[in-house]
Write a structure and sequence with these properties.
- The complex is a heterotetramer, with two copies of chain A (394 residues) and two copies of chain B (379 residues).
- Helices cover 44% and strands 14% of the residues of chain A.
- By secondary structure, chain A is of the alpha+beta class.
- In chain A, strands 1-4-5-8 form a four-stranded mixed sheet.
- Chain A is globular and about 75 Å long.
- With 379 residues, chain B is α+β, with helices and mostly antiparallel strands.
- In chain B, 51% of the residues lie in helices and 14% in strands.
- Chain B has a four-stranded mixed sheet with strand order 1-4-5-8, covered by helices on one side. A four-stranded antiparallel sheet of chain B has the order 2-3-7-6, with no helix packed on it.
- The longest helix of chain B is centred in the middle third of the chain and has 35 residues, at 230-264.
- The chains are: A alpha+beta (394), B alpha+beta (379).
- Chains in contact: A-B, A-C, A-D, B-C, B-D, C-D.
- At the A-B interface, helix 9, helix 10 and helix 12 of A face strand 9, helix 9, helix 10 and helix 11 of B.
Chain lengths: 394, 379, 394, 379
């Protein structure tokens, strides 16, 4: 594949020339992540420069069509770009639920008008999206959602409440599941709809988590008026869109562990635990747990790579993202349990400067949601049992 | 001795549970946290503890205490674990009292024990210096200076360090880090010149401090036990503390488990109570079994401590190791089975997860104690 | 308790004087276990002497009434005897399903005549019993058993097949569950009946296990005639007897691990793996697994002790034996996995003299049945969920 | 390189599966076991293997082989794992060929490789001397004697040792046990004077032997690779072997899992198919996921071996460690979910459990390889 080799050389050179040194360091603080949106600001000139250069190249979303501001890369090229970015530790220029979730759904189910309207604003980081799925009584059992959209001429009038809306208080627009036919069976009668968070009747309330942070909100809709043209896909068939999108979400969450690249866990642990004369971690039990973890982590990375290659080869199972979501999130929880154990008493501090305001325990507590959000581990296992193993009554 | 509570111990449990669930439910900890309380516990409640004989639970009657043992202290700790009540009970009534009882001379005992029993004196034991608990690694120096010593070094993870009226400090008077010989315990006034105490805000909102000793002068009278021979004394006190923490973890585990089972019987998804799902049933049953087995191991350790604390090492290692893994599993399953609600600060379950993490680390985690058991058994 | 102290002194002295040295060594071979019965022989004079002395003292079953050949000891005394026997490593003089299972059921449900007939022969090791419970289509779901007993005057005529009958080919009598009312609901219409294995129409066929041994049989009943007086308890209420007996069986199986007393696992492992300069096992990962196991094993021993004490104090839960059965058998499986790992290639030999005819791998394979026989682990967890935790629909 | 099989590799799999499932189902192993077959494998079937190009799969075409790589060898091993077929493929076609290819000089290669390819020569690699696999601990002595060496010592767990026409023996020509330097590989005729071969009947009914070398004379020409510098060569060959065994374990795991899922859909208890019980569903799903992840790791390792065997160490360690734990879980769940039937010799499932145990131990168990990964990563 000479063309791909050339693409790799060019990409490497371009990244080397254009990625500022500050943008090659691991993300340590929440503020280092750039989410875009109407009210966003850059925390540094480097962040701004890096974002704008990548945006201009279409590489905020390298594999989307160029007409929407994407890079138009094919799967092999996109993989090369990922590899070359990883090689220099380049940060993602833009993080966005528009990229990870809504975009793929719009590309598959959206009208031309919807694509033209929304996708360029996603790739350019102009609009920040949030996801209105879960409700207080519709968690794992998402399809029992009750937020209703009643027809009123060309509009729907939306009333109800969502929960676990990521960063709803910062988002510009929401993609939302609403019940458009209350008489239909559970999975029918649901529609997938988009609207502006500044619409009259929308309000949000952050949820304080055990980590002491509030990445999620409760979101309330009080007679919110939304044009019917904002429905994606067919009215009352929103469940299809939702399922498609959930697969992307799960694939994304399963890759969570990859974000914290860098030194092996065992070396991090050596900082606090120390090493013995042979250079081995001076806590043999912990060392064994770390080694077993790293075996599984390395294997998961192989599986993630293989999942992409299988999909490309048309051999992937559509429900496999549930398998990866399950394993990836459980592994990430295990990673942080080990990090807490390695950190010992130092990792128990919650507020000091020394502990970076308790960065490690807060991150640890945050991981506990990984196996709940985007479909619980129990739901994932049920999907594998039913859709892949075809077990009776699953 | 039967591995069940006696009638008297059951009565003690009931009265402690009545008091604690009434005066210090989890909301009590939450309130102290949210108000950023300077003490981190309720002095009024500690007074009530003293009046009920709990502050002096382990103090002999001749010093005004209740003269009870480690099983009874465990009963109290378990109830404390159920509501996560922040209390000087562990540092003062268990560690402080045990150190003075086991290492103190007559003068030291009569100076401090009555005050512990009447609730007027709070103590703290300063051992750890690094991220992980390794008592023989103590390297805070005790340098001879005239008739006394000067203390130089830093202690971390000192429970109740910032409210204590008396510090019990493990120091190295001879030998080097890792050696058994050369450890000495000192009774130190926290107001002494050269001491700097930084309260460390912890994940569990309980008390802990980092204490720096900058050439702190102490007299020869302040030595607790024998000079250079403090390792056995320290180990004995630590084992008593480990038994107490294991008890707290049992109370914590049972409470989280009870709340989780209740939730399984209330929460509906997919048109069923989630407790009807067999996968959750089996996990709940496994956790129940795990807790019951750990409970037996903890009670065994407490009885062993009462019988002969010097020989209780293996039983304590088993109890603390088991309690750590059981509590970890209990809070993990608790949060997971509560789903998103378990992740919110508004629900209490997160408090249990945070406290379990700290208890796991306190005086040696499950790995440490499994390793100790292996060493003890010669492999 | 001065009396108990005296009892302890006397017991110790008696054991010291009467237990032959050969009977103080761990049981290494199947033949070392004495099961009694009509056709039994002793493998050594020491085995015979030890059995007879204990029998004469009533200590083959120390806590049964003296009138049936038991020792008449109370709970505390029996515990002292166990402890003193353990202290010198004394072997049980007699192993018997009559002692472990049938006896307790007879004591509770048997008529005076039945007790007088059967119990003395159990304590004296004259009759060896086997258990006819499971059937090919009634395993975990025991109550769906189909072996039928049809009334014929004063007798029942029994037809059907049992499976997993322990040592049926060596047993003299069987205690057996049969369906006496085929029209009743599943758990009703079952009776608990005793009969001689030499009765006309009884045949057995050993089942070869993966361990290469055949401790179980298929057992066939072809018009076996049994007097109705051999029913224990009420006709059609045999399920009560069966459940009571299963609790004893489970309590027994949960204690399996205790049999292999002696050196800690870590020291056994050191034989094959070696130790490092600090005397630690020269395989840090394995050492960690062993230490974690020994923590759990020690805790289980505490729980077993507590279960007895709770029962004595009237605070025990009747279903707790299921909890112990679950944990004890899973732990025993883990023990043998570790032993196999510690033994490495040496533990893979199946026939050599060196490997004692593959004693270790055969024992390892045998443990895999622990979590199946006497109620599977899954059934045990279900019982805990239902009867102790009161979970809905369990 | 995509982590999927190419079309050619898929075709190879299909043809291997066709042959093996037809000629060597599990009943084939059972028959060899029950008849106490002296060879422990079918020479006729090995001839067929040679005719299909499988015996010479890794042998370059110039020596009459197929010239394929480790991914293809893994494809074969996986199919072998599905039916537990006893076959010289591992010891001869994988280990023997790789050792000659990587270490052999032109004379050695042309002497042996064509015979391996045409199925007329069987090889065996003799490394282990103790219960656990520790290749650097080799202490079988190679004492210089004239122009050659005398070999003194004992090897265990030599796969196919009693049927081999050529032994490849790791010996210590310098240094002492544990050292990297001083290892030498020798090509030895098993009929040489001083060699005693004891076939060891193994739990899995596959071939293994214990071989004693009592002053066995070998010439300088029999050295494979460099004298004293054999550690890298040995490690490379072992890694290729580990990748192959990991592949066998993947096939074995998938087969056991497939049989178990089938049973879950057939067996009724409590009026339901047991596969309807959610607790079993979740465990089946977890095992499925475990197998899939391991499969990816194994394929990665095989590709890495084909790319640069010298740099494949970490990938191989991950694959062998994972394959070991996955196969162990698969056979344990397989037996448990089959209930009593799973315990009977009549059912095949026990054969898989036995073979999985041997594969776990072969060339380092999961603990060994996790430890290797940790060392490689510097902790």
């Amino acid at each position: 594949m000479p063309d791909l080799d050339q693409f790799r050389r060019e990409t490497r050179a371009w990244l080397e020339a254009n990625c500022p040194p500050e943008m090659r360091k691991p993300v340590m603080r929440d503020e280092d992540v750039f989410w875009g949106g109407r009210n966003t600001t850059f925390v540094s000139e480097a962040q701004k420069v890096w974002f704008e250069r990548m945006r201009d190249k279409g590489w905020t979303v390298p594999d989307w069509p160029k007409q929407y501001g994407g890079g138009g890369l094919d799967g092999a090229e996109a993989k090369v770009l990922r590899e070359e970015m990883a090689a220099i530790g380049a940060r993602p220029p833009l993080s966005s639920f528009g990229i990870w979730m809504l975009g793929p759904a719009l590309l598959k189910y959206g009208t031309d008008a919807q694509k033209a309207e929304h996708l360029p604003k996603i790739t350019a980081g102009l609009i920040r999206w949030c996801q209105g799925y879960s409700e207080p009584n519709a968690g794992s059992d998402l399809a029992s959602l009750q937020t209703r959209a009643e027809s009123d001429g060309d509009d729907f009038i939306i009333n109800g409440q969502k929960i676990w809306t990521s960063y709803a208080n910062y988002a510009d627009w929401i993609f939302c599941l609403v019940r458009t036919d209350p008489t239909a069976k559970k999975h029918d009668g649901i529609s997938f709809i988009l609207f502006d968070m500044t619409s009259k009747g929308v309000s949000t309330k952050p949820i304080l988590l055990i980590s002491g942070k509030s990445p999620f909100c409760e979101t309330f809709f009080d007679n919110v008026r939304v044009p019917k043209s904002h429905v994606v896909g067919t009215v009352n068939r929103g469940w299809d869109v939702a399922k498609y999108l959930l697969q992307h979400e799960r694939a994304m969450i399963s890759g969570l562990g990859d974000r914290s690249v860098g030194r092996p866990l065992g070396q991090i642990a050596a900082d606090s635990v120390g090493s013995d004369a042979q250079g081995r971690l001076d806590d043999a039990m912990l060392r064994g747990q770390i080694a077993a973890f790293e075996v599984d982590e390395a294997a998961l990375a192989c599986a993630a790579e293989r999942a992409i290659d299988l999909a490309k080869a048309g051999q992937g199972h559509p429900a496999f993202s549930s398998a990866m979501k399950y394993y990836g999130t459980e592994l990430n929880k295990r990673r942080y349990e080990i990090l807490m154990s390695a950190g010992g008493a130092d990792a128990l501090e919650w507020e000091s400067e020394r502990s970076k305001q308790g960065a490690r325990p807060r991150a640890w507590l945050r991981t506990k949601a990984n196996s709940i959000e985007g479909g619980t581990s129990e739901v994932m296992l049920g999907i594998v049992a039913k859709r892949i193993l075809d077990l009776p009554g699953a | 001795m039967p591995l069940v509570l006696t009638e008297e111990q059951s009565m003690l449990r009931d009265s402690a549970r009545g008091l604690i669930s009434d005066k210090a439910p989890v909301a009590h900890l939450r309130q102290l946290r949210d108000s950023r309380d300077a003490d981190g516990f309720s002095r009024a409640l500690w007074k009530t503890f003293a009046e009920m004989g709990f502050a002096g639970l382990l103090v002999p009657e001749k010093f005004g205490g209740s003269g009870l043992g480690n099983v009874e202290a465990g009963v109290l700790m378990e109830e404390i674990g159920r509501t996560l009540m922040p209390s000087p009970f562990f540092a003062t009534a268990v560690l402080g009292t045990s150190a003075l009882l086991r290492g103190g001379n007559a003068t030291q005992q009569s100076a401090y024990l009555p005050k512990i029993a009447d609730g007027s004196l709070l103590a703290a034991l300063a051992v750890d210096e690094h991220a992980k608990h390794r008592p023989l690694q103590v390297s805070l120096q005790a340098v001879r200076s005239g008739n006394g010593f000067r203390l130089i070094g830093t202690k971390t993870f000192v429970v109740d360090g910032h409210i204590a009226d008396l510090l019990i400090v493990a120091a190295r008077s001879a030998g080097s880090a890792g050696e058994r010989n050369g450890l000495t315990l000192f009774l130190v006034d926290p107001k002494s010149k050269g001491i700097a105490i930084e309260r460390t805000a912890m994940v569990d909102s309980h008390n802990a401090a980092r204490i720096t000793f900058d050439n702190v002068e102490v007299t020869a009278d302040s030595v607790l036990g024998e000079i250079d021979q403090g390792a056995d004394l320290l180990e004995g006190v630590l084992n008593i503390g480990r038994g107490a923490v294991a008890s707290e973890m049992i109370g914590l585990s049972e409470e989280v488990f009870g709340r989780t089972v209740t939730y399984l019987k209330e929460r509906k998804q997919f048109g069923k109570l989630i407790g009807e799902f067999q996968a959750l049933q089996h996990r709940a049953a496994q956790l129940y079994i795990d807790i019951e087995i750990t409970r037996a191991a903890v009670l065994k350790a407490l009885q062993a401590l009462d019988q002969d604390a010097g020989k209780a090492g293996a039983a304590v290692a088993v109890a603390k190791a088991r309690a750590g893994t059981t509590a970890t599993l209990a809070v993990q399953e608790g949060v997971q089975m509560h789903g998103g609600m378990g992740m919110t600060d508004q629900f209490d379950i997160g408090f249990f997860m945070k406290r379990a993490r700290v208890c796991q680390e306190l005086f040696g985690d499950s790995n440490y104690h499994a390793d100790q058991l292996a060493r003890g058994r010669g492999y």
